[in-house]
Design a protein that fits this description.
Blueprint: H1 2-34, E1 42-49, H2 53-68, E2 74-80, H3 86-98, E3 103-106, H4 115-123, E4 127-131, H5 137-142, E5 149-151, H6 154-166, E6 174-179, H7 185-201, E7 204-210, H8 215-228, E8 234-237, H9 240-253, E9 260-262, H10 271-276, E10 281-284, H11 287-304, E11 311-312, E12 316-319
Helix pairs in contact: 2-11, 3-4, 6-7, 8-9
Length: about 325
């Protein structure tokens, strides 16, 4: 009986000792958390279509920045397959909220439809930074959301692109604008900027239609415009992917040397076309740095907890010379 009692007591002692050993890592973590030990913030980058080279460049720039600053934050990158898959992008933001990330840097596919879910993120304590495509001011006001925009002045950038084209034309020449989606703020602003330039120079805008940021859709629009207006002098496209569609339509019509093409974004796919003079001008809004600007701002807000304000970033014109 005494032997059994001794063995039971020994087992109890060893069991307690083992429990203490096994508890140490978890206890240390709890003690560190209780002591307020710093932890790296987790930031999500939520983009539009990763089929668009612009957003792949954006993602690569963000990943390179995080790798160089791995001690400062962790990064999670997400994107949608289709530029117009708004519901999928909303789902991505919902997932980031559920994962309790510290900040979301978002290039919204729709300037209005994404406001509500981003306000939900803010209400959950997530810092939200808007890049690339600005949220609609009226919807922000309606939702009582204050989400800062970090990005270029698209109207000013597009106006500068249009001014370059205008110098190659004469008053009264027929031109066409291929726009982005009508529900995207940056699309609307670029359309306005291109129209500003053409109207100021006295050009005749015979068509202004959406190619929805996509090459194939822009190709269809351009082909139809060329059929209706065989004396067209220029296509002004709101992004480079659509400029590629316009180039394809001109090639099919045998008019590559007769119609000027302008783009926007300076993706690598247009570099050779710029050198060859097939594309006259594009605008570089520095896709590789655009997300980085947003991430740096998010880190700043997380650190200072000060109310953020909009920040304008640079746009540079790119030509063959």
């Amino acid at each position: 009986m005494r032997m059994l009692e001794f063995m039971a007591r020994a087992a109890g002692v060893w069991g307690g000792f083992l429990a203490v050993i096994l508890c140490l890592p978890g206890c240390q973590q709890k003690d560190q958390a209780a002591a307020g030990a710093p932890s790296k913030p987790r930031i999500a980058l939520v983009m539009k279509s990763l089929a668009n080279e612009f957003f792949l460049t954006m993602e690569n720039g963000a990943r390179a920045h995080q790798k160089a600053h791995a001690d400062r934050y962790d990064l999670l990158c997400n994107g949608i397959k289709d530029e117009l898959d708004i519901s999928k992008q909303i789902d991505l933001v919902e997932q980031m909220i559920a994962q309790k990330l510290d900040a979301i840097v978002i290039a919204p596919a729709d300037s209005k439809a994404l406001v509500a879910v981003c306000k939900k993120a803010q209400d959950a304590g997530v810092v939200v930074i808007n890049i690339d495509n600005k949220f609609d001011d009226a919807v922000l006001a309606d939702k009582k959301a204050r989400i800062p925009f970090v990005g270029p002045d698209n109207r000013k950038g597009a106006r500068a692109v249009g001014d370059v084209v205008a110098k190659k034309l004469k008053a009264g020449d027929k031109v066409a604008v291929i726009e982005g989606p009508p529900n995207a703020f940056n699309s609307v602003q670029r359309r306005l900027g291109l129209h500003d330039a053409m109207n100021a120079a006295g050009m005749k805008i015979v068509s202004s239609q959406s190619g929805f940021w996509e090459t194939d859709k822009a190709n269809q629009v351009a082909a139809a415009v060329l059929t209706e207006h065989p004396d067209l002098k220029a296509f002004l496209c709101s992004n480079d992917s659509m400029a590629l569609g316009a180039i394809a339509a001109l090639r099919a019509a045998g008019k590559l040397d007769q119609v000027i093409v302008a783009g926007y974004d300076n993706i690598s796919a247009v570099q050779q076309l710029l050198k060859e003079g097939r594309i006259l001008v594009t605008a570089d809004q520095h896709a590789d740095q655009l997300a980085v600007f947003g991430i740096e701002y998010a880190l700043e807000v997380l650190k200072t907890r000060t109310p953020p304000a909009d920040r304008e970033t640079q746009v540079d014109l790119i030509t063959a010379k």
